[in-house]
Each structure stands twice: as structure tokens, then as C-alpha cells.
Amino acid sequence: MRKKPEISLRTRALQYLARREYSRAELRAKLLPHVQADEEFDSASTPDIDALLDDLTQRGWLSDQRAATQLLHAKRGRYGTQRITHELRQRGIDETLIAGALPELRESELQTAREVWRKKFGVPPQDAKEKARQMRFLQSRGFGFDVIAQVLRLEDASD
């Protein structure tokens, strides 16, 4: 059986970045297992990754800002501020970038929650059990209780 040629870390990183935007922390985690996997692992190999990530950032190919923006645009029509904030933190996005995105997210959160609710339910809850079910659904999508209460109260009042 022929052994596949080993791909360099730079090539692997560029292949990942060609598919989508990654945060620095995400890309580092994806590249770490590929640091000379067949040789003895030593801590001297990790500066290679950091130097590569620094170079990619300097060239403008790796950007936490772009990764955060991409995630925001992809998720903002389906999820609330809490869920999006959690995903940004999971991807290793800096807290200052997250804080910068929060006002814009909160501004459109009520409208997003209404749209998500309309697509899923469309009719106000008829009893407490159904109201609890609708609240749990919206909560699982990352909407806060204040927004959920506004959505369900407004929908109740509209009939």
C-alpha cells in the first residue's frame, strides 16, 4: 500500500481557510494534531504553528474579525444573542469583538425571535403546556426570557 505524501502545515492551513473563515484558536486546534504526528511530539513544534498563524494573520488570510462576522451573518436569522455569543466564545473569538457585535445583535433580536416563532408555530399558545413548549423552543434557540415574553405576549395580544 502506498503511503500518502505528508501535507505541510502551511498547505493544510490554507486548505482549511479556503473552505471558510477560522478564528486563530480554531485553526490552531485543527493543525495541532498534524504537527509531525509520526515523529515524537515535542513542545518545540508548537512554535511552528504559532509562527505560521502569525504569518497568516499578517498576510490577512486569517482574521478573528472576519470569522466572527461570518458566524454572525450565518446565524443571526435563526438564533438569539445568547446562542451566538456562546458559539463565538467556543470558536475562541476575543471578548472585545464579541462585545462589539452585541449591540447590533440585540437590536434585531426581537424581530428575529418573532420570525423564528412564526416559522415554527404561527399561532399563539392555547394553554400553559403549549406556551411552555414554545418558550422552551425559543430558549433553545438562544433567545432571552425578556424577548420570549415579548414575542408570546405580542402574539397573544394580536388576536
Give the helices and strands, then pairings.
Layout lengths: L8 H11 L4 H8 L14 H13 L5 H12 L5 H10 L4 H26 L7 H13 L4 H14 L1
Helix pairs in contact: 2-3, 4-6, 5-6, 6-8, 7-8
Would you write up a description of this structure?
The chain is mainly α and 159 residues long. It has a domain at 1-62. It has eight helices and no strands. The model is unreliable at 38-44 (pLDDT under 50).
Task: Provide a short characterization of the protein structure.
The chain is mostly helical.
| Main β sheet profile | none
Radius of gyration, whole Å: 22 Å
Report the end-to-end length measured between terminal Cα atoms.
70 Å
- What is the oligomeric state here? single chain
Total beta strand runs: 0
Helical stretch count?
8
- Output the helix-strand order: HHHHHHHH
- Approximate shape: elongated
pLDDT averaged residue by residue: 88
Task: Please report which band the strand proportion falls in: under 5%, 5-15%, 15-25%, 25-35%, 35-45% or over 45%.
Answer: under 5%
Q: Outline the low-pLDDT stretches.
A: 38-44
Helix fraction, binned, reads: 55-70%
Q: Supply the helix-strand structural class.
A: mainly alpha
